[in-house]
Write a structure and sequence with these properties.
This protein has 162 residues and is mainly beta. The protein contains two helices and eight strands. Helix 1 runs antiparallel to helix 2.
Length: 162
């Protein structure tokens, strides 16, 4: 089978791209890879806009140079048809889950709280079945929503060190 698609990044629509980027820079140490204003075609993303709209797109780069890009898209001239939630405390069908790996779970938790994140679970240890029979994976995880309502699960894998 031919590989016909490469996942480049996930982009979220946010109220303020610059402010949102600061959260990921501070909490995770990611860097800005792209930061520009441009005109968005009204056909994509499909928000029901009738003409081109100026947007601000910030793309953050995580540790891996090819994987781990996160886009933050702000509409400047037009407001999408749906309003943004203040803060969420649950996910719904169709909602994405941002899954991040970090060896600094306590630090991520503390910095996220400083930045006003809605923390769902403080750092907790738990286990999931591993890919091999009778194996298990030890995780240390913190779960939270950022100020845009983006839900994320941030985990360390202590079992890799055991």
């Amino acid at each position: 089978m031919v590989d016909v698609g490469i996942l480049k990044r996930t982009t979220y629509v946010v109220e303020n791209a610059a402010t949102s980027a600061k959260f990921y820079e501070y909490v995770f140490g990611w860097t800005i890879w792209y930061d520009n204003k441009l005109m968005a075609d009204p056909r994509f993303p499909p928000f029901g806009l009738e003409k081109e709209s100026e947007v601000h797109l910030v793309i953050l780069q995580a540790k891996d140079p090819k994987l781990g890009k996160l886009g933050l898209l702000e509409f400047i001239e037009a407001t999408p048809t749906e309003s943004f939630p203040e803060k969420k405390n649950r996910v719904h069908i169709g909602d994405p889950i941002l899954v991040i790996e970090s060896e600094d779970i306590e630090g991520v938790y503390e910095r996220a709280v400083e930045m006003g994140a809605n923390v769902i679970t403080k750092p907790v240890d738990w286990y999931v079945p591993g890919p091999k029979p009778d194996s298990k994976i030890h995780l240390r995880t913190v779960c939270l929503f950022d100020s845009n309502g983006i839900y994320m699960e941030v985990s360390d894998h202590p079992s890799r060190k055991e």
